[in-house]
Amino acid sequence: MLRFAANLTMMYQEHAFLDRFAAAARDGFTAVEYLFPYAFEATDIAARLNEHGLTQVLFNAPPGDWNAGERGLASLPGREDDFRRSLEHAFDYAQVLGNGLLHVMAGVVDTPSSSAIDEHEARARQRDVYVRNLDYAAQAARSLGLTMLIEPINTRDMPGYLLNRQDDAQAICDEIGAPNLKVQFDCYHCQVVEGDVATKLKRDIARIGHIQIAGVPERHEPDVGELHYPYLFALIDSLGYEGWIGCEYRPRAGTSAGLGWARPYLDKR
């Protein structure tokens, strides 16, 4: 049975953040995710979760200085100590909020010049840092019962991001070999970068720890665009996927008004 989590960063923006929990629960969601919780006290968020009977599924580790363009610390040379401190901060929140999944953003490639050779070398250098940091993160998270996630993200939405393809993410997980390191499979990002979403879901399902959805190309509700989600939902269900599906999309108008696609799947509470 498919289970859907509302992404409170993108959905319900007509409400203040802490009021989005109630709005999601009213619409029948039983779980939530979002990008970052750190602007709020973990205990305040936990109170909203408990009040509305919601499961916290996922959030991201601190990404560095977001306003300055940083999109994760895990691959940045010389920032290893910052990365480890960010993990500790995320772990503290996860222990209060109760989620079992934590997404670690890779970061943007620092290319000193525009030449292809320099970019290739920069990506290779940062990949090495990324693998070492992910190995550390998976080991540190294991005793807490946390699964660490890595997510290929398209460079149209996030220019210069290190990790873009599903096969690259799977190869990194293979290289590290940690049972609590998995891939966050975002159907939207996969379609933008490489397509062939259904085949990749079939190929990689054993190491997919979380799935996210959005319409392509506008990233609105999953009822318009290039991807036929009823088919993908049936496929995901047939593959025995037992995790949550995060609704990480920007509603075209009001969030609740755009949930017609979800009515057959949401709990009737």
Q: Based on Cα principal axes, name the global outline.
A: globular
User: Overall pLDDT, averaged?
Assistant: 96
How far the N terminus sits from the C terminus, by CA atoms, comes to 16 Å
* Beta-strand share of residues: 5-15%
How large is the radius of gyration? 18 Å
Strand order across the largest sheet: 1-2-3-4-5-6-7-8
GO molecular function: hydroxypyruvate isomerase activity
Protein name: Hydroxypyruvate isomerase
Domain Xylose isomerase-like TIM barrel: 21-264
Family: Belongs to the hyi family.
What does this structure look like?
By secondary structure, the protein is of the alpha/beta class. It has one domain: Divalent-metal-dependent TIM barrel enzymes (TIM Barrel). It is 37% helix and 14% strand. It contains 8 helices and 8 strands, in the order E-H-E-H-E-H-E-H-E-H-E-H-H-E-H-E. The chain has an 8-stranded parallel barrel with strand order 1-2-3-4-5-6-7-8, surrounded by 5 helices. Strand 3 (55-60), helix 3 and strand 4 form a beta-alpha-beta unit. Helix 3 (80-97) crosses helix 4 (116-142). It is globular, with a radius of gyration of 18 Å. The protein starts with a strand and ends in a 22-residue tail after the last strand. It comes from Trinickia fusca.
Key descriptive features of the protein:
8 helices, TIM Barrel, 269 residues, Xyl_isomerase-like_sf, 14% strand, alpha/beta, Sugar_Epim/Isomerase, eight-stranded parallel barrel, globular, hydroxypyruvate isomerase activity, isomerase
